[in-house]
Design a protein that fits this description.
alpha/beta; six-stranded mixed β-sheet; 7 helices; globular
């Protein structure tokens, strides 16, 4: 199981959003850190096949991300995820399962299981418009896991989660990363410190650090602030 990003760049007229990035990801949790404009979201969208690279290639186990079959191994939670406010939580997951090509019987079973995992079983039949921001985010995480993806990509997944929910989420992602590839993009350093097997730091469209982070390298939060001047956010 391997995601290969080979010399990938994305350019918009005179602006280079992602600049010749090469990296191989295998099983584990990868924390992608970077400030506003670093290129994180652009890179993620290319990995998901939403954007086409200006140059370079991205493949999963030899399969280009533009291929239709790639959708079956990918789970994705974008930063701004669209919900249908009149749907109930359960109906929404069943709808998303249908889009992913999951049979109805399996979809019902999987949806109920995931609603329990993200602690929404008690509100499964309530409309999404009644959900809090944290509940919507948990529902988004559930939909990303519907097809049991080999590659799970999460863009700012802990936004709106309270401290207890954040700990629960970390445990869930840590477990998933044992047998899958998880790419977690965030500007919250503590999320990465707690669960990431490897840290990826992006600045000005380039990877400036890739590898394990331990105490011998100093404090990750301090290093992050030194690099990005305390900026927060995502592009």
């Amino acid at each position: 199981m391997e995601l290969v990003i080979d010399r990938v760049s994305k350019q918009y007229k005179n602006d280079i959003a992602v600049d010749r990035i090469s990296i191989k990801l295998q099983k584990g949790v990868y924390g992608l850190l970077g400030a506003n404009g670093a290129g994180k979201t652009t890179l993620i969208r290319m990995i998901c096949g939403i954007l086409k690279p200006t140059s370079g290639t991205i493949s999963f186990d030899g399969m280009d991300v533009s291929e239709e079959n790639y959708r079956s191994v990918l789970g994705y939670l974008p930063q701004d995820f669209g919900y249908y406010p009149e749907f109930t939580g359960l109906d929404f997951l069943l709808y998303m399962a249908a889009l992913k090509g999951i049979g109805r019987t399996q979809a019902k079973q999987k949806a109920k299981q995931l609603l329990q995992i993200v602690s929404l079983q008690e509100t499964a039949k309530k409309k999404i418009k009644t959900y809090s921001g944290g509940m919507k985010q948990r529902l988004g995480i559930a939909q990303a896991l519907l097809n049991e993806p080999k590659l799970l990509i999460l863009d700012e997944p802990t936004a709106g989660l309270d401290p207890k929910e954040r700990v629960h989420f970390r445990n869930l992602i840590e477990d998933w990363g044992r047998d899958h590839i998880v790419l977690l993009s965030t500007h919250i350093v503590s999320d990465v410190e707690q669960i990431a097997d490897q840290v990826l730091l992006m600045k000005d469209g380039q990877l400036i650090y890739c590898g394990k982070w331990d105490g011998t390298k100093g404090d990750l939060e301090r290093f992050y602030l030194q690099q990005f001047g305390g900026e927060e956010g995502n592009e």
